[in-house]
Structure prediction request, 223 residues.
Amino acid sequence: LRASDQKLLGERCFYFLRRHNGKLRILHLDGCRAVSGDAAFNFLHNCARLESVRLPQLLVERSGREFGLSTIRWCQGLACPRLQELSVDAWPSLEDAGVRSITTQCTRLRTLGIRQAPRLSDDAIAYVTSLPELANLSLTGNVGLTDRALQELGSAPCLRYLDLSGCRQLTDPGVAALAAVVAQPKGPPLRSLFLDSCPLLGRGAIEALAASPGLSCCSLSNC
Prediction:
């Protein structure tokens, strides 16, 4: 099912799709109305054949907010062994433990995009880099990430595309260190790097990235 950017489509779609959940391979709802994380993951837990999932913003239900329930429960038991792509438009409640749960259960992920997840720290990146086939990573607007995240990403063996736009704690020395690793023969095969709206980046980052021969596309706008 490819239904991206259908603004009138909400979580009721999970009710109508449930008779097909055992057959679904693709579920693209990015750009649609925000949905309850409980509704989305209750559905996903019964979709063992999924290969590509794109979700809109995930909301915590009122009961979860009142009782302080951790949203890691959404990720636990996510039996999607074929999943190669997971993207979420915004996941404000996601914490490091949720990333660890996803990466340990969905080890074939090649594309991971988790945007607007301010509770994530550098520990989440350590879990992400454990994915052996990870090629595309987008973690935009995750303000908790620092230069340590860049250091961790230097060990991702297949990483080709990286977007950390809006990660406001990244600095020139951290970017320069990543560029140096990418330039090494055993470094990640990074080709595209986006660091827009990272206010601490300046000339040092630009010069380091310009000297990295493998990079074909870089963006540091609004820095």
